[in-house]
Amino acid sequence: MITANITTMSGFLLMGFSDIRELQILHGFLFLVMYLLSLAGNLIIIIITTLDQHLQAPMYYFLKHLSLLDLSFISVTVPQSVNNALMNDGYISRSQCTLQVFFFTSFVSAEVAILTVMSYDRYIAICFPLHYEVIMHPCKCKWAVVAVWLSGSISGILYTAITFSITFCRVKIIHQFFCDVPQLIKLSCSNDYLGVVGVNIFMAMMGLICFTSIVLSYIHIFSTVLRIPSAAGQSKAFSTCLPHLFVVSFFLSTGIFDFLKPTSDSPTVFDLMISIFYTVIPPTLNPIIYSLRNEVMKEAFKKLVLGREFTRKKIFLSFC
């Protein structure tokens, strides 16, 4: 009876991590904490890179958009998952699922693109420092960011249009905490999912181009840095590159692994953890990674906090 109701309902049922109520509450609480940490960290980066005059270089301009993407990216899946866990209701309507697929695929594609642009920025800064201001002109940086957001939107439109053109005739249960495209494809009982496979192949080729560009950029970066005679110069160069390299490696490796592994009818805890590694962990860790190894970012944050404290004290003393 339950299976029949799930089959005929218009929406989908997200299974999440467990059927045990205590574990559902724990999952909702942990996701809520991680979401609030990500929200705070990315908002701080967006604020200080916008307000601080010392953080107007292209590197920080791209970092601001990475934080904006991370903030949007995690907001697509985690709040819905927290609500489902705490309310003990995994139902998600078809319209909500459609929006989730669109924004999720859009932000994933845009994040890969912005990481590629950031690696190119570091390549120019280290390998061609004398031509940096000409090559990375503010006007060119703005067009690069426009291309990033536009490419993400096109990817989202393609995935959403193709995914929801298929006929879902199996039990509408999604073994994931969000509307995952591979899980949705498994609900089709005909060959009309082949369009999604075609889009996947096209996007995989685009992702491979981005990945190759990042690898080539860092090969040139490391070869240039290792030729720097002073240890201090090498340390400064590595301090700006290693955080970005870690973010790229972690995000792409977990995403590619989840993309390539076969979709199971009964996913294990390991399968769900892999999806967390590229949907929840990167937006939460990115602000910490970029802030802790960047002295300029730390100084800007201190100035922001101390400046507000000084302003409050000044207002209080004048009032007294």
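^ that was protein a. below is b, sequence first then the tokens
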Amino acid sequence: MVVDLIGSCRAFVGVSETGSFTAGAAVAGIPQPVASRRIAALERHLGERLFDRATRRAQLTPFGRDLLPSARRLVHLADAMEHDAKRAKLRPLRLAVPGTCPTRDLAELDAEARALGIFLEFRPAPPGERAELVRTQDVRAALVAVPETDAVWTVPLGVAATERQQLPPVVHLETLRAGRATKAERRRVWIQPEDDVPHLRDRVFRVRDAVGLQPAQVSVADSLTAAAAAVYGSADLLLCSPAQATELGLGWRPLGDAPLARGFDIAATLGEDAHHLRTRLRSGIARCLGAPDEENV
């Protein structure tokens, strides 16, 4: 017969401290008959009586007095382990995310994760830093930028401008090429920091050069705020996702020269964390990234 050593010791300690099987069972949080059975099983396991049952009060035998300190230590260790386990479950999963993720969407993702017993703590960071934060264990996981072909989540990119620009249904970068006779300021396409990664930036630069734009006409902005400000105050365009364009109050159009998309995957120190984020929280993360509905499957 297998003895529940911790449960039996808990009943043993409870009865010894109260001097009553009934009161001791209440302290241990179990019915009195269960406490009696557990103590009897412990006595059989140890080969000696723990209590003198000849008296009305639950009185320890000499053997019971000798075993009581060890039983208390075992119960305390079990309680400490349960406490540590609860704390470990509440330990937040620090997740590095793009700075483009809206606060509301992150809050909804956090609430969704808590319902699954996962506690998230977000750390916004540029794309070049997020994987490094995982490597240095400053975070447990990160949404890292990857080529579209390697991505779990993809976010289409195009260009956006103020509504007064009246963009065509599809924008071609060659239309930004100014004739030699014009003295008007050349329009620019601004690349925000989130898209300042080789598989996106270099592709846009190659299109720029192929259609004959000036190098400065496709530039990387210091921040999304700076890029949006330039677009608000001019005829410039912002390379962005449809969700970002809506958030900024801009009109969005796809690029005809080169279909572009951000790609994201999970980098994590533990495979279990990566699995939970890719599967159980897939839809919530897609919402934060601005991925279209068909990605949320």
